[in-house]
């Protein structure tokens, strides 16, 4: 149930309760006043009737007194509440009655004549009225029994009308309160709830509609201020997260580079080379394509360090690395795998093609002078290619390394090829690292 309905119902119940209590109190007071008026009116009517009966009773004209009583019985609209009426003489005998057969009987009331008019309520809810008959002195007594049925009916109708009026008024008031509350309080609160739901869903720009002049306006302004602060904080947090994420990505990239790149030459290091080479060899084995490996070692590298210092030795390594990277194909993997030793993995390349490529690399290294003194650097190369007995990386490395040492023994600055391997010379597992 909506808040508007709850508040309207609560207000209606409170007002209905107060109105009902008020209606009951007012109805009871009106009923009490109506009963008093009923007694007073009937008493006055009977006193007037007693004035008409007194001369007839005093003169003994009992037929005249009976005629007056018969007139009351024959015209009930004049005395609608009189159920019984009797006239007694001073000795308590009936001289006139609504039942003429009682003439001369002793009255049940008995006793001396009444001194004054009285009204008493009987156990059955009827009223017993006694009116003395007087001229210059007491001449008799008029006794009447009155029914309150008509009075109770009128009181019931009044109470019923009051209840219906209260119910109708409360129904109309409830509807009016619901509509008023929904317009004044329910609609603004519902609008705030909708805006809060939109903000919870991520729409940080949502704002409550502007109001003026009441507490809800203050609440809406405070809510909008809070939403603006939350939006600003969210944007700042998102910016900080983006900045931190970028920093972390850059750091991770840097860590990856440090883990896979040689710091001096900026080529792949041995670890990265072996991981990539194992994947390439495995794929080449499944597809049946050849792969060649070229190992390069700078000739007499120790002499550069001894003669010119380690800084010049580092420059020699960067110089050779730059030539290898520039002359290799984009698909080739160039790496520094030792102090002055480099490796070039050539996918989709046989032994003959790799030999030609290695010769081109050797010439490029030898012809390019280094430093102000024109120091020329040379390098020796060893070339091996995959074959049925040489599909694993460790076997390929051993074959290329043997060819490299053959170049060293043959006078350096040359290219040597590894001979084809026997079928059982090495393991066929391309993922073995040796």
Structural write-up:
With 434 residues, the protein is an alpha+beta fold. It has three domains: 3-153, 2-Layer Sandwich (Beta-Lactamase), CATH 3.30.450; 204-260; 270-417, Reverse transcriptase/Diguanylate cyclase domain (Alpha-Beta Plaits). Helices cover 56% and strands 14% of the residues. It has helices at 3-58, 62-74, 149-200, 215-260, 270-287, 301-308, 310-327, 351-367, 393-409; strands spanning 82-88, 94-97, 118-121, 127-134, 138-146, 291-298, 333-336, 341-347, 379-385, 415-417. Strands 2-1-5-4-3 form a five-stranded antiparallel beta sheet. It is rod-shaped, with a radius of gyration of 63 Å.
Key attributes of the depicted protein:
Alpha-Beta Plaits, five-stranded mixed sheet, alpha+beta, 3 domains, 434 residues, five-stranded antiparallel sheet, single chain, 9 helices
